[in-house]
Amino acid sequence: MLQSDTKPIFLVDAMLGNIAKKLRLLGYDSEYSS
User: Is residue 4 predicted with pLDDT exceeding 60?
Assistant: First the structure.
């Protein structure tokens, strides 16, 4: 079993840009394209 101490990276589309902003506020690496 692989164990990793890194947080997941989230890629979201333009319709979910608001969620990407909230994920960033929570400390997750997220990116979206408009």
Answer: yes
Strand partners, 11: 31
d(CA 30, CA 19): 9
pTM for the whole structure: 0.55
Please compute, for residue 17, the number of CA atoms within 13 A of its CA located in the half-sphere on the CB side: 5
Structural domain boundaries in the chain: 1-34
Residue 9's DSSP bridge partners are: 29
Cα–Cα distance for residue pair 14/34, rounded to 1 Å:
5
